[in-house]
Design goal:
The complex is a heterodimer.
Chain A: E1 5-7, E2 10-13, E3 19-24, E4 31-38, E5 42-50, E6 53-56, E7 65-71, E8 74-79, E9 88-95, E10 104-105, E11 109-113
Parallel strand pairs in A: 2-11
Antiparallel strand pairs in A: 1-3, 3-8, 4-5, 4-9, 5-6, 7-8, 9-10, 9-11
Chain B: E1 5-7, E2 10-14, E3 19-24, E4 31-37, E5 44-49, E6 55-58, E7 61-65, E8 71-76, E9 85-92, E10 98-100, E11 104-109
The chains are: A mainly beta, B mainly beta.
Chain lengths: 114, 110
């Protein structure tokens, strides 16, 4: 079975540029989560979707961050304009909509903003 | 504000030793999950506990959920180099949303 697929695996760009991170969840999963991981703050939930609808975006740090889920098999996280403090590993995860189900994580996108 | 504090933050031990990792909060959770993360990969679920006082065993790993559902522990017996990784606890209140702990980085040397 294919797991959660994220692209790109690594992204290096200059500050001010637009960054788009992509995620394909596991087929049949109806929840999708975007996380950010840093040494200082650990793993933080940014936003999550249920059936393609954003449910909670309280973790999105600023208006520079936006996320979309146009269909059940694709989601994007966009940063515009990017800043050096956005450098982190960004994870996408998906899960089934039953209580206490595990979240299945992708391998992450390591983002470096110069 | 970090709602789930893990201790210790770092642990370096020799193969064969036992260890315990703690996950503490002032909040009550409906469930508590433990994940392990290896370098360059995402976290992978080890176990879910849902009942206060519950104990689950996974080979050499023993997980316990506190009676008040505010804390949890992970005990590893006879640690092996393959146990090396970042251990994360995650508390759940509402449907599917989790908050992750600060993490414990474990290194087991041969």
């Amino acid at each position: 079975d294919a797991g959660v697929i994220q692209s790109p695996r690594h992204e290096v760009t200059e500050m001010g540029q637009e960054v788009t991170l992509r995620c394909k969840p596991i087929s049949g999963h109806d929840y999708l989560f975007w996380y950010r991981q840093t040494m200082m703050r650990g793993l933080e939930l940014l936003i999550y979707f249920n059936n393609n609808v954003p449910i909670d975006d309280s973790g999105m740090p600023e208006d520079r961050f936006s996320a979309k889920m146009p269909n059940a098999s694709f989601s994007t996280l966009k940063i515009q304009p990017s800043e050096p403090r956005d450098s982190a590993v960004y994870f996408c995860a998906s899960s089934l909509g039953h209580p206490n189900q595990p979240q299945h994580f992708g391998d992450g996108t390591r983002l470096s903003i110069l | 504000t970090q709602l789930l504090e893990q201790s210790p933050q770092f642990l370096s031990i020799q193969e064969g030793e036992n260890l315990t990792v703690y996950c503490n909060s002032s909040s009550v959770f409906s469930s508590l999950q433990w994940y392990r993360q290896e370098p360059g990969e995402g976290p992978v679920l080890l176990v879910t506990v849902v009942t206060g006082g519950e104990v689950k065993k996974l080979k050499r790993l023993t997980f316990q959920f506190g009676d008040a559902r505010k804390d949890s522990s992970l005990h590893i017996t006879a640690a092996q180099p393959g146990d090396t990784g970042l251990y994360l606890c995650a508390g759940g209140w509402s449907f599917q949303k989790l908050v992750f702990g600060t993490g414990t980085r474990l290194l087991v040397s041969p």
